[in-house]
Queue: 2 jobs
Job 1
Amino acid sequence: MNNLEKQIKEQRLLLDSDLPREGHEERFLQKLKRMPEQGPVRRIRFRHAIQVAASVAVILTSAVLLVRTEKSNSKAARQEIPADIMEADIYYTSQLDARYDEISGFHFDNEEEKAVLLHELKDLEEYHQQLMKDLEANPDDERVLAALIRHYQLKLELMDQIIKQLNQIKTETSDNYENESL
């Protein structure tokens, strides 16, 4: 560090002046004469070219995907589910909700069993949602309609059997309580 300080102190007068050293202008003019008339040459680096190409590819791919998605959504939006099918859906949904409420109203000895049963019944709803998506995509497909109606019927039968068994258990336990109390 001492050498640097010493050098700065020795050349302090040269460093403090605002004017460039003598001959600066001549050296600058000579460099300008040596330069070609075209101006500075710009070089395109390979790395920059690859980055630009990758950016353009990503933008174009995104645009194509957005256009395809928009077209497929507009096709699905144009096809509506017929009104009679929607009425059947509302009817079956109300029937299923009534049975679900009836099952959830039963008293269980083990609340965990009740939670598991109700959860399993709700899991059947995922299959229903998939059928509804298929129906929206293909409202005229008879197979989807048949599968949807069959799903509703099976779910109603299952819930009716559960209610029947819960009622049997309820009557058996109430009969046992009556016999024990006598």
Note: The chain has two domains: 43-78, 80-176.
Job 2
Amino acid sequence: MAGYQPVMNLGRLALRLTIGGTFFVHGTQKLFGWFGGYGPDGTGQFFESLGLRPGRENALAAGATEAGGGALIALGLATPLAAAGLSSVMITALRTAIWNEGFKTATGEHEVLLAVAALALTDEENGTGWALAALGAGAAGSALAISRARKQPEAPTADPAPASPTVEAPTPSV
């Protein structure tokens, strides 16, 4: 078993870099429009359509959580905190965009896999208690974000400019 530990370390490193990198890319798509993303304005419009208001602010929060949490996971730093934030974003995506009309089989695998992988890294390095705490914090964060977002008023839609009233020119006085 002497060769077992380095293989496990290599596997954990590969998992950290893959999961962390995936989250980092998704976050920077929302924050900066990198990697074919829509940036905060385009993502914000999508979030508005899901009822996550204000959309732009929620897009920035989700992007910062994904990019920051992804970087932390990749570097092996503050894994429980990163897993809590990342699972919160994935639970929110599942509840609002993917399973918004109820749980459906064969949908949401990507989001579930990413959240579970971050939680599994937490369990592996910090124990089951920390992984369960991260999951609980992620679920609570998602519930709070959705509740807060749905209490916000809808963004005003751009109405066409009203027709300018006809103003008669004053009659010159003689």
Note: The longest helix spans residues 4-32.
